[in-house]
Amino acid sequence: MAQFFPAMLSILCLYATRAAADGGEFRMESDEEIGIHKSILEAAQRGDVTAQSLLGQDYFYGVHGVAKDTHLGLHWATKAADADDRDSQELLATAFGRGHPDVPADAGRAVEYGTKAAEQGSVKSAELLGKLFYNGTGLEFLSQEERMQKSFKWFQRAAKDGSLGAMNDLGDMYRLGQGTKKDYSEAIRWYQKVVADMSHVLAADPTLPSAGWNRTAVARAFNSLGAMYASGWGTEKSKHRAVEYLEQAAALGHPHAARNLKSLGAAKEEEL
Ligand SMILES: *[C@@H]1O[C@H](CO)[C@@H](O)[C@H](O)[C@H]1NC(C)=O
Ligand SMILES: *[C@@H]1O[C@H](CO)[C@@H](O)[C@H](O)[C@H]1NC(C)=O
Question: Which interval of the chain is the signal sequence (predicted)?
């Protein structure tokens, strides 16, 4: 690893120069980007894993002045991922797991790379694994029960590391008794953890992709809390609190909250 450090440093410096240039009045001519690309390519060909990882991302996403080439992106990302580069493992897991216009979904490979990345601390990969095992497409060699247990385990990991989406999914699994014993109080506890983060979520820069995911997670948790209070699951029945939660969900754009509010409004307090 030590012999790669000088190359890695120079690549990072080049990227830093590029970023600074972007902030100027003129966008630097692509000559510079071509030069950087060439140095990264040379380092990658010499076996520098950091360079292979950067190159994989540049080709895969078509960024930093590099024309998008999914095939080359996968080629370099696979080299780096097999040398245990976490970002490349995450890239491959996402591409194979979600499917991609140029990459057919392959749950087996998504699980393989996702597990490696998650074990190196990738929260995004842990959440993806939870979703892949929950969905089950391409993983039919496992029984439904095995899949649910694995899904639960990965959502638990991602939730512990702060993923709001995974906290919601964990709440759902406790509510439905999937991958774990049914436990309404635990479900409520997880939904409450998600909504407790609301002020932070609403204050986030809305152009960041995770801002939208977080907002969706909070809306879902409010809607679920509304349903739990309306039904008296894991808590005292309370139409008043159910309405409060559903109104919050509706304000955040949850697609079913308005309909839920309407049916709740039609129900008499003593029927709830
Ligand atoms: C499961 O995944 C498949 C393939 O990615 C997708 O078409 C399907 O809609 C998913 N099902 C659910 C329930 O999410
Ligand atoms: C979304 O939530 C996660 C977990 O709390 C947090 O790490 C991330 O910064 C949030 N994203 C934004 C844009 O606030």
Answer: 1-21
Measured from the alpha carbon of residue 158, the closest ligand is: 2
CA atoms of 44 and 52, how far apart (whole Å): 5
Among all ligands shown, which has an atom nearest to the Cα of 106?
1
The two structure tokens encoding residue 229: 């209070």
Three-state secondary structure readout of 153-215: HHHHHHHHCCCHHHHHHHHHHHHHCCCCCCCHHHHHHHHHHHHHCHHHHHHCCCCCHHHHHHH
CATH architecture of 186-272: Alpha Horseshoe (1.25)
**CB of 193 shorter than 6 A to ligand 2:** no
> Are the C-beta atoms of residues 226 and 257 closer than 8 Å to each other?
yes
- Classified by CATH at the fold level, domain 84-161 comes out as 1.25.40
Which ligand has its closest atom nearest to the C-alpha of 201? Answer: 2
Encoded amino acid at 7, one letter: A
Predicted TM-score (pTM) of this structure: 0.85
Nearest atom, ligand 2, residue 209 CA: 13
Sorted by where each begins, the domain ranges of the chain are 1-80, 84-161, 186-272
CB 105 near ligand 1, within 6 Å: yes
The model's pLDDT over 186-198, given as tens digits with 9 standing for 90+, comes to 999 999 999 998 9
Whose CA is closest to atom 7 on ligand 1? 137
The response to whether residue 140 sits with its C-beta less than 6 Å from ligand 1 reads no
Q: Tell me how many degrees the CA angle 114-118-120 measures, rounded to the nearest 5.
A: 125
237-261 pLDDT tens trace:
999 999 999 999 999 999 999 999 9
Determine the distance separating the centroid of ligand 1 and the alpha carbon of 157, expressed in angstroms.
22
